[in-house]
Amino acid sequence: MAINLTGTKLVFALAGVGCVAAVVAAIALNQRPAPQPAVFEPASNPYGQGIFANGIVESDLPSGSNINVYPEVAGTIVEVLVREGRAVRRSEVLLRLDDRVQRATAEQQRAQAQAAQAMLEELKAQPRPEALQVAQAQLAAAQASARSARDAWDKQQHAFEMDPHAVSRDALDGAHNAWLVAEANRATAERQLDLTRAGAWSFDVRNQQAQADALARAWQASIALLDKYTIKAPADGIVMAIKAAQGSYVTPQGVYDTYTQGSNNPVVILGSASQDLHVRCYVDEILIPRLPAADRIKAQMSVRGASGRVPLEFVGIEPYVSPKISLSDQRLERVDVRVLPVIFRFRNSDTLHLYPGQLVDVYIGQ
Question: What torsion, rounded to 10 degrees, do the Cα atoms 275, 280, 281, 284 define?
């Protein structure tokens, strides 16, 4: 009995300890940690009747958006002459494409144009002195042959008149025919001399002129196309992004992007060097009636991940309501929502430095 009482007491003791541990654990686990302070102040609408819109930062350019540079011809990039962040001037070379085939084509057309021009000059320079001398010599020879044939015929005819048996009728006819042939040759040589003196026919000159002009224009077009293999900056600005590297194959539709897996990407994106930036925001069509008049529009911008707001200056409205797409422009699906683009301007600062392409929240009031 003593042993059994001792075991029972031990069991009750262990059970009590377990209950106490369970209570302590429950209390400890139900303790909630104190809330952490916010990293940045949550965005809120500063206007009582304000309109909220998503916005994207863009360069301060006359078009109100960044300049997307696409090649006008397809080819492989053989040289990249700029880097991101570099300031470039208008017409400065950005990239070069492989132009060996087009360069050979241009050289071939240049040679054809020069040959056609040389032929035209040759026609205009006629008659050639040497050809004129040959024609004159041929006429002199034909005239001499005609005189010799005439003399032979006259002698045969005179002999026949003195004694019909001295010359046969066949010999007399042969001498006469020989004179006629020689006279015809003389007349032909005389016409040939006139033709040589006249030079090239006006129709031949005009035809050759047209061919030379056509080949010259084809050569100029080929040179202009060759220039397209050198991609130049269309305006002054800053190189914001280069989407292709040396060895990449690009087309007028753009370049394939490894990350977005899309092929309609510009090869180079240019922005403005100004400290002023634009914000393009898209106002939902159901909120358009609530937009104030242009002279009363005021707006503020809230930057995601940062505290405070940035005042915006109204620039203008693009008066065309278009289907809404994602601001990244990578999702091609169009939804049944239309938006109105409204553009604002702000001054970039060292304390809150923003970059084109950054997404922001815009609040429009009056």
Answer: 170
Distance CA 148, CA 228 (A): 72
Q: Which residue range is the domain that position 242 belongs to? A: 68-98+229-273
Mean of the pLDDT values across residues 314-333?
72
Q: Are 343 and 317 in contact (CB under 8 A)?
A: yes
Domain contains 205? no
Total structural domains within the chain: 4
In angstroms, the CA 7 to CA 18 distance is 17
Quick one: pLDDT at residue 271?
85
265, pLDDT greater than 80: yes
Contacts of 55 (CB under 8 A, 6+ apart): 279, 280, 281, 282, 301, 344, 359, 360, 361, 362
What is the tens place of the pLDDT at every residue in 60-85? 776 656 889 999 999 999 999 999 98
Task: Give the HSE-up count for residue 144: Cα atoms under 13 Å, Cβ half-sphere.
Answer: 6
268: domain CATH number is 2.40.50.100
Residues 155, 84 share a domain: no
Tally of CB atoms within 10 A around 5:
9
The answer to whether residues 183 and 235 belong to one domain is no
Q: Which amino acid is at 137?
A: A
Q: What is the mean pLDDT of residues 324-344?
A: 69
- In a domain? residue 308: yes
Q: pLDDT per residue over 234-246, tens digit each?
A: 988 889 889 888 9
**Domain at 308, CATH number:** 2.40.30.170
How much is the pLDDT for 1? 45
Cβ neighbours of residue 96 under 8 Å, at least 6 residues apart?
Answer: 77, 78, 79, 81, 229, 230, 231
Question: In 3D, which of 144, 149, 145 has the Cα closest to residue 178?
Answer: 149
Two tokens, residue 99: 């132009």
Residues in the chain: 366
Q: Read off the CATH number of the domain in which 143 is found.
A: 1.20.58
User: Looking at the domain assignment, is residue 164 inside a domain?
Assistant: yes
Average pLDDT, the chain: 85
Residues 305 and 261 in one domain: no
Q: Which helix (H) or strand (E) holds 333?
A: none
Let me know whether 248 and 302 are in one domain: no
Percent of the chain with pLDDT over 70: 86
Q: Map tokens 């809230």 to a residue.
A: 302
The DSSP letter of residue 236 is S
